[in-house]
Write a structure and sequence with these properties.
Elements (H helix, E strand, L loop, with lengths): L1 H20 L7 H4 L13 H37 L26
Helix pairs in contact: 1-3
């Protein structure tokens, strides 16, 4: 479970960074009006590579999330089964009330 948790946290940070690196949809408008776009990732740009990387990271994130939820629910159910069965509480005991002897009448 610890390995899955570590992988999950690493994928979370990677997914956040990958999404922040991606350019918005309006970023290509500058290249359309005469600006030359020189990219490190080739002529198609970084969008194809980053889109595939985002998809891969999202799939790993979903798988680790499901695994952690499944493991957590199994652990909780086994803990519930290990508890001893509760017995019914004992009936409250009745304390006998002794009648009091009649005392003197109050003066009027």
């Amino acid at each position: 479970m610890a390995i899955i948790t570590v992988i999950h946290i690493i994928v979370c940070f990677a997914l956040i960074l990958i999404v922040l690196i991606q350019a918005g949809k309006g970023a290509e408008m500058g290249a359309a009006f005469g600006g030359a776009s020189q990219t490190v990732f080739g002529s198609s740009g970084a969008m194809g590579f980053l889109t595939k990387l985002t998809t891969f990271a999202a799939i790993i994130f979903m798988i680790t999330s499901l695994l952690l939820a499944f493991i957590s629910s199994r652990r909780a159910s086994t803990i519930m089964k290990e508890r001893p069965a509760r017995t019914a509480p004992a009936a409250p005991q009745q304390i006998p009330v002794q009648p009091q002897a009649p005392g003197p009448e109050p003066k009027k």
